[in-house]
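Exercise 7. Given the encoded structure of a 422-residue chain, write a plausible sequence.
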């Protein structure tokens, strides 16, 4: 299923606010009943300006009556939100408006900055270095024609309801014209996972957001009034190529999501390595973190075709997509089995008081007592320091505890009214 989504949508020119982006939205709404949030110029926020509704109708370079280059032959042939232009220019001027991929002579680069900076749009083309090197001195006729409308962003939002009051958000970005792995592969993995998840009854709520990179999540979270019930997030990025998975830690590491990813990958035998926050591909995790949602990421990065026309269906491996789906499903199962502690007391309890009776005795070396229950004693000591909602599985990983015996001990706390286990 994930591969079929990538195959169908990869050829589309999924620039922000474009007809092909709308086609991708319509296609995905047939796979899941997404709520589509539409934002216009009135939602501009924090300096982010939503770019205009946009379509390139013509983009040619002509010399001596012959079309040398048609920017519409490939979705990356013109920069995203390129400015219209009509005129005759010399070779030197033309070259100032041509961008090529310095890593590979036969690939077209991805030029995206005008979508994020609509106040400084310019005309130009994205070409291969091989083609650029064929140009000779002379006059070139340039025609770039566009149709533009009111600013618009469309955000896809699908939620599975839960009963715990906690929500885990999964996010990917749907833009990047003509590309398959970045990040259409992440979107496809998310859609397949949530197609299966929607048939289940879950303790927690789970949400899938498909956005325009960074600006989409910023505009959406601001418009919805912040994080809501979002507890933690996971960014799904570039998951279709034959590269081992990188688990990128959250800014507020360690998190339950990171533990879930590592435990699940270990159980499934999936190769992975860990990187620090923002040390892999940098995306919307910083937006969620800024709104108070700890957000990890999984990514198959780096790969040589990144941000170029070589990022196409030929580099996508269905087995890697399937592996990514299994990993994310296992992460959700991990969260469903986890328990969370909500503290109901203030200060430090006298746990040895017989009315409380929650003290875990680690022994006293001065009296010759053998060291015992050390890990559970560490948890006991830190119960008064817990804030917010604390994952039992994270605490077990932190202190080296068995999950079932830890839950049994915490149920004693709950029976006394000192905590709530969610």
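Solution.
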């Amino acid at each position: 299923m994930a591969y079929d989504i990538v195959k169908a949508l990869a050829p589309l020119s999924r620039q922000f606010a474009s007809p092909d982006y709308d086609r991708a939205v319509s296609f995905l709404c047939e796979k899941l009943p997404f709520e589509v949030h539409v934002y216009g110029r009135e939602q501009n926020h924090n300096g982010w300006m939503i770019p205009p509704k946009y379509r390139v109708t013509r983009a040619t370079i002509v010399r001596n009556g012959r079309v040398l280059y048609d920017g519409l032959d490939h979705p990356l042939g013109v920069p995203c939100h390129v400015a219209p232009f009509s005129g005759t220019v010399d070779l030197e001027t033309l070259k100032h408006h041509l961008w090529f991929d310095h890593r590979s002579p036969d690939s077209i680069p991805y030029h995206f900055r005008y979508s994020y900076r609509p106040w400084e749009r310019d005309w130009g083309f994205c070409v291969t270095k091989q083609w650029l090197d064929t140009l000779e001195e002379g006059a070139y006729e340039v025609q770039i024609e566009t149709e533009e409308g009111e600013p618009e962003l469309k955000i896809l939002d699908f939620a599975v309801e839960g009963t715990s009051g906690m929500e885990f958000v999964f996010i990917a970005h749907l833009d990047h014209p003509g590309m398959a792995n970045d990040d259409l592969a992440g979107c496809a993995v998310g859609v397949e996972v949530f197609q299966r998840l929607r048939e289940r009854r879950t303790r927690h709520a789970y949400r899938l957001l498909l956005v325009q990179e960074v600006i989409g999540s910023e505009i959406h979270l601001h418009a919805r009034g912040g994080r809501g019930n979002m507890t933690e997030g996971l960014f799904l990025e570039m998951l279709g190529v034959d590269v081992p998975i990188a688990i990128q830690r959250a800014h507020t590491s360690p998190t339950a999501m990171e533990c879930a990813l590592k435990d699940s990958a270990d159980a499934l035998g999936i190769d992975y390595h860990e990187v620090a926050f923002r040390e892999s591909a940098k995306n919307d995790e910083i937006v969620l973190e800024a709104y108070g949602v700890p957000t990890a990421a999984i990514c198959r990065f780096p790969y040589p075709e990144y941000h170029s026309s070589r990022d196409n269906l030929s580099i996508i491996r269905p087995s890697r997509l399937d592996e990514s789906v299994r990993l994310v499903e296992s992460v959700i199962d991990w969260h469903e089995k986890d328990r969370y502690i909500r503290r109901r007391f203030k200060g430090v309890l006298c746990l040895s008081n017989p009315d409380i009776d929650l003290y875990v005795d680690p022994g006293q070396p001065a009296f010759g007592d053998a060291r015992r229950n050390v890990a559970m004693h560490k948890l006991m000591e830190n119960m008064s320091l817990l804030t917010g909602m604390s994952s039992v599985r994270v605490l077990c990983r932190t202190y080296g505890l068995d999950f079932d015996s830890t839950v049994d001990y915490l149920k004693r706390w709950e029976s006394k009214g000192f905590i709530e286990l969610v």
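Remark. The CA atoms of residues 270 and 323 lie 8 Å apart. Students should compare their own answers with the one above.
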